[in-house]
Every structure is written in structure tokens, then in C-alpha cells.
Design goal:
The chain is mostly helical. 61% of the residues lie in helices and 4% in strands. It is built from 24 helices and four strands. The longest helix has 25 residues. It is globular and about 70 Å long.
């Protein structure tokens, strides 16, 4: 916990410094503490992203980034001083109850970040994606080695900038820091609600009621947590500025939208939000639109180039615009395998052939335990929300968000209706309904207290998450906090550290031991992929991974075998 706290302080200083870069670029006047640091994290992401095109995010990168951080703080020391003073004033205005809640969440997040992660995707590709970035940067054709590695979310790029791979302890704690950062915003808005009585502030303050669920995403760099939370801030700002907006506020909405899209491309439908604001307030925003357009094109360029390097496709996993002829292009058979697997996961890997839409829906809502429950709750919210909105709200901006939520779900249904792809809308619907019926700050705070207590459950008992999710063949379970974790966190993998070396043709790779699940790799040294996966794809698709040259740094390609 203590080592993680030190890393959090470093993340805080870095996001404090880099936050000024985007604010200066767009002349953003907003002084909100949490928004500043989220913009700082986005700036660091872009900085690391560009760097990783050419070099590894290694010790040299860390020295370079630390130098930039210190230089910005020195050059803008007056702005830094103002920022910290405003933070102090805000903290002092909080009630003792609010302060204790933030401290409680901070300690719980530190503790959860110190224990072994229990998220399946951490073992299948989070750890390995970050290792590749730290040791090589972006590698051509990495998707040929393991199709999951082709995703490389910008959240993993950001985690790679704070993992300190050259130390004995490799950190995996970005999500814990982000939860604490967002918690400050929630209590800040609850504090403002006491005087303003604006229901929108009560809504964003109520997000922490979902803490017993969110806490399971803390100790792994899951992009889902950042999507769940940043989306709520985006919705809050959209509702707040729907009727009247200035360029500074619009810039924040745009930057948060872009950040969400590069964290998880499945959120791309949210680009409608800044577009709606542009159309509605075109006269106000028109004189300043050149810079946002150029910035958006720049980030889109980074996204496309990343896809090309990792897979050979511009819009991976879509096969549209397949215009490039590079030797590291991922075979379409592997992309199809990825799509089918991703879609089937939403239905608990049931047999889906020849099912009607109605039968598919029944299979979806009756999925394995937790997944099915979440699907039923979301369906109920989706159907009841417009009626409750008509009775309790009638605020146009809220209904626009509902319509976009429906569109998002339709797209998710086409590609893969897994709950984590639409949970942020489930969170929005449920919290809106909550504040429509319970319009007092004291009631929301009471619900938050209960949530804080329930969030202690993972620390008191081991929960085997594979008993409640679709990944039943794995042994993912929560880890109880131990005395040694007060100083040093556990290894960031729940898998065995043992591995074997295998050779496929002329390609030597490392694989976890035989008791590992098909897609998992864990913390195995690079280059690594599960031998079971290689054997399966070789048997059924006649494809094996291979090096492009004798040097791993030059990347991978796929070879067809007889």
C-alpha cells in the first residue's frame, strides 16, 4: 500500500503538470480539480502513444516524461500554486463526513490495488499488452501472436507510463488512483447541491452508490472502470451545458469524448454528444472550431496508425477499408475467431446457430448467473426509463442521452451485447431514476455509506468470480489483504509464475504451464502466448505465428501450414 501510495503521488504530480498542456492549448478556463487531472491523464496518454511508435516505454521514457513534468511545473508554477490552493479550499469546505468518506475510499482503493487481480482479461492480455509497450513500444503484427494483443487500449498505454517495469515491483494501480480522483468530484458536487439544489449535481454525486461493483475493477488496468466513470462526467456536462455553452466547456466535452473513444472504441457512438452541441450552438462555437477539428483528426490519425502497426488494418476489428498490403496483416480467419468468441461470450457460449432474434434475446437474459441478472436489470431500465422520465423529469438533454443509449445498445447487440459494453448507460439510467425519487442529499449519502460498507466484502472473504461469470473454466478469485501488503503489493497476476519454452517452426516462445486456460498468458516473459491456443489455431485454421525477421522487435506475421 505504501509503495502504491508513492506511485499515486507520482501520477498526481504528472497529471497535474500535463493537465495544463491541454488547458493551455484549448484555452480552457475550467478550474475543476478532477477535470484538470483527467485532462492531464489524456495528455500523458497522447505523449506516451506518440513515443511508443518509435521507442519502448522504458527507463529512458520515464526519465524524459519526468523531465517534461518538472519543466511544465516550473514554467507554470503560478498556475500550479493557484490549482493547489483551490484544491485546499475545496477540501476545507467539505464536511467531516465527506472527508472521512474520501479517506475511506482512498484506503480501500490502496488495499484493493495491493492484492492479486481477479479479472480474467488481466491474465489474457492486460499484463502482456503493457509488457510489450514497456519493452518494445508498438510492435508490427502483434495481433498475429495473440489476437487480443491487437486491441491495445489507450488506457493500457497510460498504465504502461506508470508501471515502472524496471523496478522489482511492477505497478498495476492506475484504476485505484482514478477511482479516488473521481470520488473527489462526486463529493464536490454533492457539496454544491446543498446550496444549488440542481438535480444534475445530485446525479453525479450518486455514482459512488455503485462502488461495491466498481471496486472489482480497481486492481487491474481494466479500461472498463475509466469508461464507467468518465462517461458519467461527460453526461453530467452535456446536461449542464445543453442549453448554453461556451468554447471552454465545449472543449472539455469534446476531449472527454475523444478520450473515451480511444480507451474503448465501443463508446464511439458518444461522438454524437459534441456534434449535437455544435449544431445547437453553432453560432457561438463556429469561430473556434478549427482547433477542435484539427485535434480530432490528429487523434484519429494516431488511432489508425496504431491499428495498422498492430494488425495491418485501419479500422480493426472491422475489415472495412482493407487497402493495405503488408506482410504482418492478421489473417481474416483470426479476426473472425475473435469476433465469434466475443459475441458468444455475451450468451455464455451457448449454441447460437439457427436461433431467431427472440430466441437470442431469451438466451441473453438467461445467461449464466451474474451476466443474466445484469441483462435483465438493463432491459428493465431501458423499457421503463422513458415513462419515468416523462413523469419525473421531462428534461430534453436527459432524453437525448436515453436515445443515444438505445442506439448504443443496438450496436452492442450487433457486435457483442456483453454487459460491460453498455454498463455505463445502465449506471446512468439507474442513478437518474434514483435521484428522481430521492431528491435529498442526505438520502444519497446514506446509500453511499451502505455502498462503502458493502465494498469491504472482497477484503473479508475470497470470492471465486468464475462461479458468477461466463468464464467458468478459470480459477479467478479475489485475494484477501495480508500484512505484507501494507508495504508491498502482490504480483499483478493470479497465475503461476512457471512457464515452458516452445518452438513453432523457427519461432521460440514462452507459454504458461498446462493447467492454464486457453487464452491466458499471465506474467510470462516475452514473447509469450499460450501453447494450447497455438495448437488449436494450427489444427483448425492451419495458421501459426512467426517472426518477420530474426529480431522480435521487427514484429510478427502469420504463416499458413499444411
Amino acid at each position: 500500500m505504501l509503495l502504491i501510495l508513492v506511485n499515486w503521488i507520482y501520477i498526481f504530480i504528472s497529471s497535474l503538470s500535463f493537465g495544463f498542456l491541454l488547458k493551455k492549448l484549448f484555452k480552457i478556463e475550467n478550474q475543476n480539480f478532477t477535470i484538470h487531472h483527467i485532462l492531464g491523464l489524456f495528455s500523458i496518454t497522447l505523449f506516451s502513444w506518440v513515443y511508443a511508435f518509435f521507442f519502448a516505454l522504458d527507463l529512458v521514457f520515464y526519465g524524459f516524461m519526468a523531465s517534461v513534468t518538472m519543466a511544465v511545473i516550473w514554467l507554470l508554477k503560478k498556475d500550479v500554486k493557484v490549482h493547489l490552493i483551490q484544491f485546499k479550499k475545496c477540501w476545507l469546505l467539505f464536511s467531516n463526513t465527506y472527508k472521512l468518506c474520501i479517506i475511506f475510499i482512498s484506503v480501500a482503493a490502496l488495499a484493493m490495488s495491493s492484492v492479486t487481480p481477479a479479472i480474467f482479461d488481466n491474465e489474457s492480455y492486460y499484463i502482456q499488452t503493457i509488457k510489450w509497450l514497456n519493452e518494445y513500444g508498438f510492435v508490427k503484427g502483434l495481433g498475429n501472436l495473440h489476437i487480443f494483443f491487437a486491441q491495445t487500449s489507450s488506457w493500457h498505454i497510460l498504465q504502461a507510463a506508470f508501471s515502472f517495469p524496471f523496478l522489482e515491483t511492477s505497478f498495476n494501480d492506475l484504476n485505484g488512483y482514478f477511482l479516488v480522483l473521481f470520488s473527489f468530484l462526486c463529493f464536490q458536487q454533492l457539496h454544491h447541491f446543498k446550496t444549488s439544489k440542481k438535480i444534475n449535481q445530485l446525479y453525479i454525486g450518486s455514482v459512488l452508490i455503485s462502488l461495491p461493483f466498481l471496486i472489482f475493477f480497481i486492481n487491474a488496468p481494466s479500461p472498463d472502470l475509466s469508461v464507467f466513470l468518465i462517461s458519467q462526467l461527460l453526461f453530467f456536462l452535456f446536461i449542464k451545458h445543453y442549453k448554453a455553452i461556451d468554447f471552454s466547456s465545449f472543449s472539455i466535452v469534446l476531449l472527454l469524448t475523444i478520450f473515451l473513444c480511444v480507451i474503448k472504441i465501443t463508446t464511439c457512438v458518444l461522438v454524437l454528444l459534441p456534434l449535437i452541441l455544435v449544431v445547437k450552438h453553432f453560432k457561438t462555437l463556429k469561430p473556434n472550431l478549427v482547433k477542435p477539428i484539427l485535434f480530432s483528426v490528429f487523434v484519429l490519425f494516431l488511432f489508425l496508425i496504431k491499428n495498422v502497426i498492430l494488425t495491418g488494418y485501419l479500422l480493426y476489428p472491422l475489415e472495412n477499408f482493407d487497402v493495405l498490403n503488408v506482410d504482418w496483416k492478421v489473417p481474416k480467419e483470426l479476426i473472425h475467431l475473435f469476433k465469434v468468441g466475443t459475441y458468444s461470450a455475451a450468451f455464455d457460449y451457448q449454441e447460437l446457430e439457427n436461433l431467431s432474434t427472440y430466441q437470442l434475446f431469451i438466451a441473453w437474459v438467461t445467461s449464466f448467473k451474474f451476466n443474466g441478472i445484469i441483462n435483465i436489470i438493463f432491459t428493465t431500465l431501458l423499457l421503463s426509463f422513458p415513462f419515468l422520465w416523462f413523469l419525473k423529469s421531462k428534461e430534453k438533454s436527459v432524453f437525448i442521452l436515453y436515445i443515444i443509449g438505445v442506439l448504443h445498445f443496438v450496436l452492442a447487440w450487433i457486435f457483442s451485447p456483453q454487459y460491460r459494453f453498455f454498463f455505463f448507460y445502465m449506471l446512468f439510467f439507474s442513478m437518474q431514476i434514483c435521484v428522481w425519487f430521492f431528491k435529498k442529499e442526505k438520502i444519497i449519502v446514506l446509500f453511499t455509506y451502505i455502498s462503502l460498507l458493502l465494498s469491504l466484502v472482497p477484503f473479508l472473504t475470497e470470492l471465486k468470480l468464475s462461479n458468477y461469470t461466463t468464464i467458468k473454466k478459470t480459477n479467478t478469485k479475489t485475494s484477501i489483504l495480508k500484512l505484507k501488503n501494507i508495504v508491498q503489493p502482490n504480483v499483478n497476476s493470479s497465475m503461476s509464475l512457471e512457464y515452458n519454452q516452445h518452438i513453432e517452426g523457427a519461432f521460440a516462445y514462452n507459454s504458461p504451464t498446462k493447467d492454464s486456460f486457453f487464452w491466458t498468458v499471465g506474467i510470462v516473459p516475452l514473447p509469450a502466448v499460450n501453447a494450447k491456443q497455438v495448437a488449436f489455431i494450427k489444427k483448425y485454421y492451419k495458421i501459426v505465428p512467426a517472426l518477420r525477421t530474426a529480431d522480435v522487435e521487427d514484429g510478427f506475421k502469420s504463416m499458413h501450414v499444411k
